Known about the structure:
By secondary structure, this protein is mostly beta strands. The strands form 13 sheets. A five-stranded antiparallel β-sheet has the order 1-2-21-20-19. A four-stranded antiparallel β-sheet has the order 3-4-5-6, with no helix packed on it. Strands 9-10-11-12 form a four-stranded antiparallel β-sheet, with no helix packed on it.
Amino acid sequence: xxxxxxxxxxxxxxxxxxxxxxxxxxxxxxxxxxxxxxxxxxxxxxxxxxxxxxxxxxxxxxxxxxxxxxxxxxxxxxxxxxxxxxxxxxxxxxxxxxxxxxxxxxxxxxxxxxxxxxxxxxxxxxxxxxxxxxxxxxxxxxxxxxxxxxxxxxxxxxxxxxxxxxxxxxxxxxxxxxxxxxxxxxxxxxxxxxxxxxxxxxxxxxxxxxxxxxxxxxxxxxxxxxxxxxxxxxxxxxxxxxxxxxxxxxxxxxxxxxxxxxxxxxxxxxxxxxxxxxxxxxxxxxxxxxxxxxxxxxxxxxxxxxxxxxxxxxxxxxxxxxxxxxxxxxxxxxxxxxxxxxxxxxxxxxxxxxxxxxxxxxxxxxxxxxxxxxxxxxxxxxxxxxxxxxxxxxxxxxxxxxxxxxxxxxxxxxxxxxxxxxxxxxxxxxxxxxxxxxxxxxxxxxxxxxxxxxxxxxxxxxxxxxxxxxxxxxxxxxxxxxxxxxxxxxxxxxxxxxxxxxxxxxxxxxxxxxxxxxxxxxxxxxxxxxxxxxxxxxxxxxxxxxxxxxxxxxxxxxxxxxxxxxxxxxxxxxxxxxxxxxxxxxxxxxxxxxxxxxxxxxxxxxxxxxxxxxxxxxxxxxxxxxxxxxxxxxxxxxxxxxxxxxxxxxxxxxxxxxxxxxxxxxxxxxxxxxxxxxxxxxxxxxxxxxxxxxxxxxxxxxx
Length: 703
């Protein structure tokens, strides 16, 4: 017996060795049993030793009765009395045979009853598959395909999340999910291997922490042979047998915080909502000096003076109309009291937070034959910007009715469009290395930035800091511009713009890799800007300090092509912590949800297909759903609390490239590779009702 040695292998987690047993034989290839109060070890060929974990001085209790080597041990799940079942190789002691099951192509390696359905049994075999049996009919309910190149060795059920996990000899773990159940946000999987202990987040499939035996020479085990785990009471007990020595070690893992989520994510880091005003030297305090027009002054000469000497001169009367004597006034009317016209402000109706996800097809429209790269609703939900691959930009009504407004000027495909917060202007960026800012209702851009300004195409562009700045990414640089729009033109110099733009900051990425995705919040003041790099990294820029605040390498297996934040809208209100959630998308790596405070992935979505085209993903205004385009001619809507999709939106004839949620009502607009728009809503919201709702925001009443 050894003294307890404690070692912290992750903030908030404490590992300690409680006991060490010497059974007298090598147990690396034999099964051991563990519960919260006892552990059982084979001793010799036909005997067992049961140890009490509560009383160290108590002698182990020997058990005998088998006529051959003991191959399996397991404790019962009931709290009391403690039940122990053992099995030998040559025979099984039974009172009555319930049923006999056969169907595997190789010997069985493990079997376990389903904890929430007693009549369901799961068996694992060396044929690398598992079967789910219904004991009432003695038939197979489900048979898996070949999960691994090595035999399946172990299995475990998670009753709270309705998950079944299998482990194979090559170190691979497979998770089987049930679509009719909801998965919580605190599903952690503890995996014991020959090297150490892994902690895996089942929602995001991300490794949270790892404890290696080689890093702790004080432990009695260096290479593990077999594992047995028991959880409960804020701790986890692990019974580990040594691979090369006849020794068994009891390890205990305790959570020092309130729960495991807090232990693996200690403290709060970055936040979207700032806690202090900008610094004095911050680029966010930059101001644009407007040009002052100076009138030329005459030098010398005689000043203009009146031609008469009197101060008051009587008019000659030539400019007045001739008067007629005794002209009758026949249409005399009494002056009515003037009516005061009162204008009501914008009537904003709250977004229905409890409404279901938009999944009902409402309308489809063919725009052109080129791809629809980007879509963006205006803040009031009345208009939609569409950036096309044929260098043009269309503006439609949110109901997709009427004739759209067409804007041209780019020479290559449009890559980004965005409305301003005030809805008085919008911008477009294209692959022709230009950025154009347009005023609402104007057919010509008020500001054009391009030419030799950028050496590479503008990837993403948007308004930032409540329309104070223009934010865009080009190459490995993040540009911040101050601007002032002036729509007036000189009659002589008609094509010379009077708008002013000046660079406020130019920041380089930490790894000097090109920026592939950009996102920042413009609906309220925020200092954080999120970037995705070509080196698969995820970077957070603090614009208040003009530097990289945090960097996460290898956020995806491929470069991130889309970053979307939970921005909400003017029609909704969410908790302050909800705005710290954002998502990223990458080819062949699905969609990941991140928490900015810890910069850790909290959930992963992989039901959609995205292998070659940069399909866009977005948050709903209520923050309960996310949507993603897919290459199987569908759009997928996910519940933020579950990794399985809620709806698979069809009615598309090509790959869904872009999509956008309406900020005012539960609507989802999708754009395809073939240039078609599709509008989806809910059951109780029609296109006509939405059109009437949008018109209510500009009602004027006359009294």
